[in-house]
Amino acid sequence: MANLKEIRDRIKSVKSIQQVTKAMKMVAAAKLRRAQQNMEQSRPYTENLENMISSLLPDVDRSMLALLDKRPVKRIAYLIISSDRGLAGSFNSNVIKKAQTEIDEFGKDNVDVFCIGKKVRDHFKKREYNIIEEHIGFWNELDFSHAIKIGSGVISKFLSGDVDEIKIVGNLFKNIAVQKTICKTLLPLTFDTVESVNIDRIFEPSKIELVEALIPRHLNVQVWQALLESYASEMAARMVSMENATTNADDMIKSLKLKFNKARQAAITKEILEIVSGAEALA
Q1: Model confidence pLDDT, tens digit, residues 155-202
Q2: Closest by alpha carbon to 114, among 100, 136, 97, 134?
Q3: Half-sphere exposure in the Cβ direction for 95 (13 Å, CA)
Q4: Domain spanning 21-241: which superfamily?
Q5: Beta bridge partners of 111
Q6: Element containing residue 169 per DSSP (H, E)
Q7: What is the CATH number of domain 4-20+243-282?
Q8: What pLDDT band is residue 44 in, cutting at 50, 70 and 90?
């Protein structure tokens, strides 16, 4: 059995760690409120923009727009979104596992990777995947300019013909306790057919010009929404993870205190036995 000093030092160490996890939980909770608010405010704009493009497409020749052109898929690029830091439970591992499965199904040699976040960058760099771009260290200053920068790289890669399809892998925020890992096609653009409403509208400029102007904006908004969803999911996962760690520290402290009391009681009993034995020997 460990001596009293070792147990006392371990209790002190666990309490120190508990203070850290509690502080990290509070920081994550504060960031989550802002991230969730930004994400929820962006969702209606993203959905309405997609619905608007969907309503215009039936009257537009898709072959006139390169971003709508479907071609035989020989090479795929994956835009994979993770965080820069750990201590967020299974947040990063779920994204990496999902991306790894998708890439292995198609073949590593026919895949390019856009890495968003240090964790996914480190994972695929260590395994010598073909990383086209990496974006790290921007989450604390996240704004729309980052989405534009990432989106421009994705669009240029597709328009140049280097890849025939681009997919995005990341987390979708459901609620604080649930984040869903998704993989969806970013390019070429596909939209569900929307039932046209018989309303007499005059479009100025023409529908084709509107679609040409809206589609690049739509791609940037899609990337922006994915970044917001991922950041909110990261903060939620970290908050829950730190809360669980704090609770586990409580349980560990209780267990160590019980162990400490047992060891102290054993030491006291031993001393009493030694005193009684010594008194009997003198008698």
Answers
A1: 888 888 888 899 999 999 988 888 899 999 888 887 665 455 555 667
A2: 134
A3: 34
A4: ATP synthase, F1 complex, gamma subunit (3.40.1380.10)
A5: 76
A6: strand 165-173
A7: 1.10.287.80
A8: very high
Characterize 10-38 residue by residue with b for buried, 16 or more Cβ atoms within 10 angstroms of its Cβ, and e for exposed: bbeebeeebeebeebbeebbebbeebbeb
Tens digit of pLDDT for each residue in 103-130? 988 888 889 999 999 999 999 999 889 9
Nearest of 178, 183, 165 to residue 100 by alpha carbon: 183
Instruction: Tell me how many degrees the CA angle 138-140-146 measures, rounded to the nearest 5.
Output: 40
- The per-residue pLDDT of the chain, averaged, comes to 87
Q: Would you list the domain boundaries of the chain?
A: 4-20+243-282, 21-241
Question: Are 4-20+243-282 and 21-241 the same fold in CATH?
Answer: no
Q: Residue type at 76?
A: I
Euclidean distance between CA atoms 142 and 19, whole angstroms: 28
Confidence class for position 28, pLDDT limits 50, 70, 90: very high
- Give the per-residue pLDDT at 2: 61
